[in-house]
Amino acid sequence: MNKAIRGVTTFSFILVIILVANLMFIQAFQTESLAHNALNSRQFLEAKSVERGQITAGGQVLAESEADDDGLYYRTYPETTNAYGAVTGYLSDRYGAAGIEASQNSILTGDDESMFATKIWDQLTGKKPAGANVELTLQPNVQQTAYDQLASNGYSGSVVALRPSTGEVLAMASTPGYDPSQIVQPDADAAQAAFENYSNDPNSPLINRATQQTQPPGSTFKVITTAAALEAGDSADTMVNGSSEVTLPNTNTTLENYNGTVCGGGGQVTLREAFRRSCNTAFVDLSTRHGADAFRDTAKAFGVGEGLDDLGLPVTPSRLGEIPDDAALAQSAIGQRDVALTPLQNAVIAATVANGGVRMEPHLISKITGSNLETLRTIKPNQAGRAVDQNIAEQLTDLMKEAEQHAGGEATIASKTGTAEHGEDSRNSNPHAWYIAFSTEADVAVAVLVENGGNAGQDATGGSVAAPIGRAVIHAAEQEQK
Question: Which positions are annotated as active-site residues?
Answer without folding.
Answer: 219
